[in-house]
Amino acid sequence: MPTYDYQCTQCKLQFEIRQSINAPTPDCPECRSIAEKVILSAPAMHGNMARGRDLAMRSLQPKSDQTHGHAPGCGCGHH
Where is the stretch described as Disordered (predicted)? Predict the structure, then answer.
């Protein structure tokens, strides 16, 4: 079940609720007003998904930012 972040429009308390996507908007746990504002955030990535994202981001780096694997002084002109 997903976790959603809310902010109360009355007292501005930020809180998170674990609920179904079809669940009604929760009341603020502090002042009991309806929390109407949903704070959008990127989902957390764990385990293999995070590793895959890291590899994908590295693959997008320009080739000049990556080392070419030659030893210093090899004469290739890339140092």
Answer: 51-79
The closest alpha carbon to 36, from 24, 46, 22, belongs to 24
Domain count, the chain: 1
Torsion of the alpha carbons at 18, 22, 27 and 28, rounded to the nearest 10 = 40
More confident residue, 38 or 12: 12
Residue 27 lies in a domain: yes
Rounded-to-integer distance, Cα 50 and Cα 1, Å = 20
Residue pLDDT, tens place only, 33-51: 988 867 666 666 666 555 6
Sole residue written with tokens 């293999």: 48
Amino acid letter for position 30: E
Say how far apart CA 1 and CA 55 lie, in whole Å. 28
